[in-house]
């Protein structure tokens, strides 16, 4: 297995992984981005994210996508948006290798925090994160406002 920083030409496979994750998370129709979006936003003059891919026998079997955030308490931090392993390749250490790559990326940059979200029903992921020493917060809620909500709110 090889874990490396993704290249522009990896984005079609990364998008397929994102779509597989959406199916796993029971929202198969939620993915709106395209390969062109990933290429533009991740590989332009000011990339919005960094992506790592895991390969086995020349096949992309996993990915982790991260971006920088700012915490008023900690300063510059890293957000792990998605950590994805193809279903057929789970249980082979791929997720752990990608996770370690993300943590090393943050550590090497002197960041004080890596944050991410996990669905409350994804008990396998929660156990994995807790075993790694991560603190799965029980008292915080993730809040989103979608495009319709934005439009409705600003027009109210």
Automatic annotation (TrEMBL):
Q: Which Pfam families match?
A: Acetyltransf_1
Q: Name the keywords, alphabetized.
A: Acyltransferase, Transferase
Q: Which InterPro entries match?
A: Acyl_CoA_acyltransferase, Diverse_Substrate_AcTransf, GNAT_dom
Q: Where is the N-acetyltransferase domain?
A: 1-156
EC id: 2.3.1.-
Superkingdom = Bacteria
- The record's top EC class is transferase
Gene3D superfamilies attached here?
3.40.630.30
Gene Ontology terms, MF aspect = acyltransferase activity
Task: Tell me the protein's name.
Answer: GNAT family N-acetyltransferase
């Amino acid at each position: 297995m090889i874990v490396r920083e993704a290249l522009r030409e990896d984005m079609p496979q990364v998008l397929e992984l994102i779509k597989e994750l959406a199916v796993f998370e029971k929202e198969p129709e939620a993915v709106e981005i395209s390969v062109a979006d990933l290429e533009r936003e991740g590989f332009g003059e000011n990339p919005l994210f960094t992506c790592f891919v895991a390969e086995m026998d020349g096949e992309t079997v996993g990915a982790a996508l991260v971006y920088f955030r700012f915490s008023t308490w900690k300063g510059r931090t890293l957000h792990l948006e998605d950590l994805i392993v193809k279903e057929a390749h789970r249980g082979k250490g791929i997720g752990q290798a990608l996770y370690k790559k993300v943590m090393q990326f943050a550590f090497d940059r002197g960041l004080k925090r890596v944050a991410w979200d996990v669905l409350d029903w994804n008990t396998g992921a929660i156990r994995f994160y807790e075993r790694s020493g991560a603190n799965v917060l029980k008292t915080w809620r993730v809040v989103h406002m979608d495009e319709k909500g934005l439009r409705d709110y600003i027009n109210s």
